[in-house]
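INFO batch 0412 | record 1 of 1 | parsing
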Amino acid sequence: MNAKQMLKFGLRRRLISANALSDIYARGDLQVIKREDLRALSDEEISYVWKAIDRSCIAQKNKLFLKLCLFFGWRNGELRLSRKADFDLNKELWTVPPEHHKLGKKTGNPLLRPIIPEIKPLINEAMKLSGIHTHMFLNTQENEPMGKGAPLALPYNIMQWLRRHEKYEMTHWSVHDLRKTARTNFSTLTQPHVAEVMLGHKLPGTWQTYDHYTYLKEQAAAYSAWWQRLTELTRA
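INFO prediction complete | emitting tokens
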């Protein structure tokens, strides 16, 4: 429990008379301004990053992890915690259980995402690498899903490889920026509400209340177009 939670706990139970932190206006008193991170990879950067993923010496599971994050725009936590049983390659459907995605605790509903034929080899390879274990991506030599901190160093390793082998300098990016890169490209390939569904975002206002369509066909069409673009960008 952090300090903010402790103060709220004490205030609710009348153990304290005031919450001192609530009296501090962050922007005015502390001059704290939260800035939006607008980082998304350009087409040129995508090409270089994909090349580095293929040619670098990082573990094969991490190569697959980065490629899948970029392609699907998944939250990396959804991929880290994914189980092989969540992927039905025959029905070409990936089901993210409620406990593994951001809105799941509130809605109690899974996320449904299509698996296009072109991406099946990457998923199959990830499954084989995990052997007999339940989860797709494991901690090293453990039957536990990849830890939260495990993906943090991957972009640095990719940037270091590009600097050393391609003399290519990149502005810092994170695994989460791959999600933003995918979403930026989705905007050019499908309708905005479909792109939001692909990212696992809720639809605005009453739309989410009345529209329970999965948009699986529309998602699949957008993913196919995105794969085609990635293929063209990374062919060189």
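INFO post-check: The two ends are 51 Å apart (CA to CA).
INFO record closed
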